[in-house]
Give the backbone structure.
Amino acid sequence: MLKKLINWYQSKFINTKNLLKKEHLNIKNHIVNINGDKFYLAKAMVTDIPEMVEVEKSVYDGKAPWNREAFIPELQPRLDRFYLLLRQQDKLVAFIGSSLNDRLSDCHISNVAVHPDFQDRGLGYFLVAKIIKKARQLRYKTVSLEVRVSNVKAQRLYSDLGFKEVGIKKNYYDGDHEDAVDMVLDLDLYETIPNNFGI
């Protein structure tokens, strides 16, 4: 009975989801160690957009899937978006973006990019794991994403983190109209996933 009363009071008078977001998404910029290399982890800001676009161009053969105009609304101060980036010696080398859907209790990873010179060093894994951890702290039920059908390497990384294929989105990507693999991580099952590394 007391639990019902507390839940009712919180739902009526306190926006607990926004309080959780303010608490868990307000990270301090700091140095992290990834496989023996030091990187500077920070929340992305509008001023980082030119470098983010350049990282995308380096990954996608000179074409950036997201341009400046697409990134600007994503990086405005708001509680339904969360972007992180990694720098080494003041050079932006990787970033990840996500949208937070309270209604669906889903954290959707919208983009991940690691500069080719820094791939295969665990940066993508680290960033996706960070997003999963934040989604768990926010008590979300799922983390979702799309990945190119041809990007088998990324699919393997996501599978290693517990994501499961739930479907194919036909002609998903602009330009080449490549299909996307739709993948979802069920956070209710996450404790049972081997090698979840305490995320």
Observations:
- The chain has one domain: 2-192.
- The domain at 2-192 is CATH 3.40.630.30 (Aminopeptidase).
- The first helix runs from residue 2 to 13.
